[in-house]
Amino acid sequence: MSADDLHHSVGARLREAEQQYTANRRAVVAVLAAARTPLTLPEILRADRSLAQSSAYRSLAVLVDAGVVHRLVHGNDYAHYELAEQLTQHHHHLVCDGCGTVVDVTLPTRVESAMDRSFEQAASRHGFTASRHSIDIHGLCTECR
Amino acid sequence: MSADDLHHSVGARLREAEQQYTANRRAVVAVLAAARTPLTLPEILRADRSLAQSSAYRSLAVLVDAGVVHRLVHGNDYAHYELAEQLTQHHHHLVCDGCGTVVDVTLPTRVESAMDRSFEQAASRHGFTASRHSIDIHGLCTECR
DNA sequence: TTGCTTGCAAATGATTTGCACTGCT
DNA sequence: AGCAGTGCAAATCATTTGCAAGCAA
C-alpha cells in the first residue's frame, strides 16, 4: 500500500469514528508505517522529534480506538505499537526474551485456517465467541543467542 | 496432581533455584492451585487475607523466576498469575475483551504439533530460536455477549 | 464562537523497594 | 550470630489527565 493510500484509508476510518486526521496523528501513522517492527513510545518520539510525549500517547489512544493501530503489551516496560492488520496483513510476533525486540512474522494460510477452526471450537466449548487471535512466539534473536 | 505432589514439586524447583519454600510462597501457590483461572494480585489477596501486598508481589517474583508461576499481561490493569505449565498442562488463553476475564483452554495435540513446526520455521526464517509459544484467543464471554 | 487538539506539568496507579523487624539455619 | 523473608510505607515509572493556549469548522 502506498503512503497516499495508507493515509487515505486511515483518514476514512478516523472519520467513521468521528475523529479528525490531524497533523500529529498523521505523523504518528507515518512513523509506524516507516518502521518494520512494532515501536515503543520512546522510539516513536525519537523518530519524530516534533512530537510531544503526551500528544503522542493521545494520538495513539485515538488511533487504537479507531482500530488503526494495535497496542502490544509484553511485560512491564513500554508497550509496542504497530499499524493494525487491516492496513498491513495478518501476522504474529516473534518476541526476543533477551532484549524484548518484537518482529512480525506471517504463517502459511493453511496453518492459519487450521488454527482458526481449532480456536473457534475451543472458544465455544467455554461459551466464548472468538473474534481474533494473537500468537507470540518466544525465543532468542540473533543478537541474544 | 495432588496438593502434596504439587507442593513437593514446587519445593524441589525452588531449591534448585536456591530459594526457600516459605509459608507465604506456599500460600500463594495454594491460592493459584485452587483457582481454575489465572488470578490478579487483588484476587490473590482476597483469597488469602493473611497475605501482605508487597510480600505477595515478592513471592510471585520468586516463583516466576523459578519457573513455577507464569505472569500474563494483557493490558494496563493488573497482570494475571497462574501455575506454570510444567505443573499443570500446556494450554492457551481465552481473553474476554469485555471484562478482561482469562480462561485456560487446551488444543488437540495434532494442532499443537502442527503449530510448533510452523512456528519454528517462521522463527528461523528471522534468525530467531523459538523456545515456546503463547496464544491469546480474544472474544466475548457469556456474560459480555 | 464553539469545540477539538496540543503541550506542559502534575497526577495516577500497578509494581518495586528501603528499612526495621522477625524467624530460619 | 548471620542471613533470608516479611510488612509497612514511600518511591518508581509508564501512562493519563487538568488546564490554558492554539486551531479548525
Mean pLDDT of chain A, to the nearest integer, reads 93
Q: How many helices of chain A?
A: 5
Order of helices and strands of chain A: HHEHHEEEEHE
Question: What is the radius of gyration of chain A computed over CA atoms, rounded to a whole number of angstroms?
Answer: 17 Å
Using a beta-carbon cutoff below 8 angstroms, give the protein chain pair with the largest interface and the number of residues from each chain: A-B, 39 and 39 residues
Class from helix and strand fractions of chain A:
alpha+beta
By CATH's scheme, which homologous superfamily of the largest domain in chain A applies?
Winged helix-like DNA-binding domain superfamily/Winged helix DNA-binding domain
- Largest sheet geometry of chain A: 3 strands, antiparallel
Residues in β-strands, percent of chain A: 15-25%
Rough shape of chain A? globular
Number of domains of chain A: 2
Oligomeric category: homodimer
Please give the CATH architecture of the largest domain in chain A.
Orthogonal Bundle
| Count of distinct strands of chain A | 6
Overview of this structure, please?
The structure is a homodimer of 145-residue chains. With 145 residues, chain A is α+β, with helices and mostly antiparallel strands. The first copy, chain A, has helices at residues 3-16, 23-34, 41-47, 53-65, 109-125; strands spanning 39-40, 69-72, 80-83, 92-96, 102-105, 129-140. The first copy, chain A, has two domains: 1-86, Winged helix-like DNA-binding domain superfamily/Winged helix DNA-binding domain (Arc Repressor Mutant, subunit A, Orthogonal Bundle), CATH 1.10.10.10; 89-145, Ferric-uptake regulator, C-terminal dimerisarion domain (Dna Ligase, domain 1, 2-Layer Sandwich), CATH 3.30.1490.190. In chain A, 43% of the residues lie in helices and 21% in strands. The mean pLDDT of chain A is 93. Strand 6 of chain A pairs antiparallel with strand 6 (129-140) of chain B. Chain A binds a DNA duplex (25 and 25 nucleotides) through helix 4.
